[in-house]
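so my prof wants the structure for this chain in the tokens format not the other one, which i didnt know existed until like an hour ago. anyway here's the sequence
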Amino acid sequence: MVPPIVKKSYWTLAVLGGIWALLLALVYMHKLHHGYFQNVKNPEEFGFAKGQVTPFWLETSDREKLFCWHVLPLDVYLDHERELVSSVQDDVVESGEFKNTLGARLLREDKDGWRPSIYRSMSGISHTHTLVCDYRGFGISTTNNKPHLPTETGLITDGISIVSFVLNELQHPASRTILLGQSLGTAVTAATALYFTDPDSALLPQGLVHPPVAAKAPQPFAGVILAAAFTDLPTLLKTYKVKGIVPILSPLQNYPKIANFLSARIIDTWPTLARLRALITAATGSSTPFHITILHARNDQEFPFQIAETVYSPLETLMLAEEGASSVSERRSIQGGERVQRGAFAYRKVETKEGERTVEVEVVRYGGHSEGVGWGQVNLAVRRAWRRVDGEG
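here's what i got, hopefully its the right format
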């Protein structure tokens, strides 16, 4: 006869195991968002000026429909405010129709050119247009293709489709385009940047549906900015806490067989570090400029801030193998007595001899996990990218 205490322990473990399995299955959390009760088709509800944002549908290469915003910079909006206010449409336009909107025309003519908080932040940068889309299954974007859920292959297809739309449909040059991702978006951004550097890379999913217009690789983007990046998903889940509270795999570290069993069943592994290494190798081989910025907040309660340097260090080693490359490293002591560039907690940078290829990591003191992407450090990273493009820094 099994003692009652053993039965209780068994059922406790079973329930906890079920909860952990559920959390693993819901790793994308695509239906949990702050704007659930707000109308994303009316950007004014999120603090934008009337007509500043054009909502539109973008069709991906595999026929999903992504809900997108084109956010005008405030300086451009101010110059055309009356015309923009009078041209506001009630319906969300299709991607083909978007090209004919006033916002798209201003984008083409502007040669300089906590989620909504970052879009408002970016709109304050002169001549900086922001194009942002909900990935498939997120917000009101569709999931028509099997398995009717977000997947690694699907989300990367979305990222590639968005950038292809900018480069080919809107005819906006890569040299005036910055790719910016936060949290899971850093993995999508890294994979997308790799695609436009080496579309045949073995590190890209085999099931990608390529855009109608073949990628002109390699593309020299003005910058790739990654806020709260991670090396790969199985490694991240060992320390990740949902909303900084509920751990995923860390409670199982004393039970390695169970932890390894669950980790081995993670289908979407998101090998971001490996893809960044492949990007650097491909770009170096073709002498293509690239500038990668990794940002992380020290008070991030979901992703340990140490991950930022775990991502950076192998990239630094790879780049230092190139003749003439050099690196700098600055770190604030526990007493806070040492000066660190930009006031960060830690700052490291590696660059080639002429500075045409750079990777930098900046660990800042504050910003948390989601909110920090709308703070000054990301805004400054974008501004520095434009200065670099303009030859000012």
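also thought this was worth mentioning. The chain has two domains: 34-150, 159-232+270-393.
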